[in-house]
């Protein structure tokens, strides 16, 4: 609890602060929130400023302040791709609930 009070008082206001505090309090975060909280903690609560850490870390692609802002894409399974094709067909033909039953 003392650590949380210190972070609230001295930690920079940045993406990841609330997520890290939520984690310390035993709350749940989404995967993205967990990454932001981890980056916040790993960089020393952004004490040197909110910038790219340039660390060789598997989470670096999702770091909120990285310099390379290209969007990270995740691989889609064949089942997800097939569902996208079905949804596209349903939308293009105007079939709503009836179209879902045909597949």
Structure described in brief:
The chain has 103 residues and is mostly helical.
What does this 3D model show about the protein?
- The chain is mostly helical and 103 residues long.
- It has 2 domains: 61 residues, no CATH class; 31 residues, no CATH class.
- 50% of the residues lie in helices and 0% in strands.
- The protein contains 5 helices and no strands.
- Helix 2 crosses helix 3.
- It is elongated and about 60 Å long.
- The model has no long low-confidence stretch (mean pLDDT 79).
Main attributes of the structure:
single chain, 103 residues, mainly alpha, 2 domains, 5 helices, 50% helix, elongated
Beta strands, count? 0
What gyration radius follows from the Cα positions, in whole Å? 20 Å
Q: Measure the end-to-end span.
A: 54 Å
Specify the helix fraction band: 40-55%
List the total number of helices: 5
* Beta-strand percent range: under 5%
Mean of pLDDT:
79
Order of helices and strands: HHHHH
Shape: elongated
Q: How many structural domains?
A: 2
Low-confidence stretches: none
Largest sheet: none
What structural category arises from helix and sheet content? mainly alpha
Topology record:
Blueprint: H1 2-10, H2 17-24, H3 31-42, H4 78-93, H5 97-102
Helix pairs in contact: 2-3
């Amino acid at each position: 609890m003392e650590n949380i009070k210190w972070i609230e008082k001295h930690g920079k206001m940045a993406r990841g602060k609330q997520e890290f505090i939520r984690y310390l309090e035993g709350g749940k975060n989404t995967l993205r929130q967990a990454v932001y909280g981890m980056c916040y903690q790993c960089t020393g609560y952004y004490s040197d400023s909110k910038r790219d850490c340039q660390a060789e870390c598997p989470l670096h692609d999702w770091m909120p302040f990285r310099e390379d802002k290209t969007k990270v894409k995740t691989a889609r399974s064949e089942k997800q791709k097939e569902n996208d094709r079905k949804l596209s067909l349903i939308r293009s033909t105007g079939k709503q609930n009836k179209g879902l039953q045909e597949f």
